[in-house]
Specification:
139 residues, 2 domains, three-stranded mixed sheet, 58% helix
Length: 139
Amino acid sequence: MNPPYFVIYTDKLPANVGGRATGPVVRIKPEYRDDAGIHAHELVHVKQWYTGLAVGLAVAAAMYLQAIDGWPLAILFGAVLHPLATASKKYTFWKEVVAYREQAKYYADDRRLQFASFIALNYGLSVTTEQAYAALIKD
């Protein structure tokens, strides 16, 4: 079951971006409206955001049950955990590999080498296409 999220079709994305998820909001360029792979890719990022939120909610619940002040801040921290983690190149590499692996399942042809190139060139990660491809094909 998928968590709640919203999709907005807009051209207001950078030239080399087909879609982007920010929390539970996904923006996709109109020309990719019917591209199930891009939708699946962005849904992975939505789920990653919800995972961070769940961590914050769990910490907040534990704090609340122990009568520890500041528990609402734990919820806020959970909501920004995934975006903050993207400052880490290792995390960004991992999250994109996971999302592109999912996206690759939606096409009749194998686009993993193309996706590896996207990872190597578009995320400032200092990885080669070969390294990204090796991660994409790894079980």
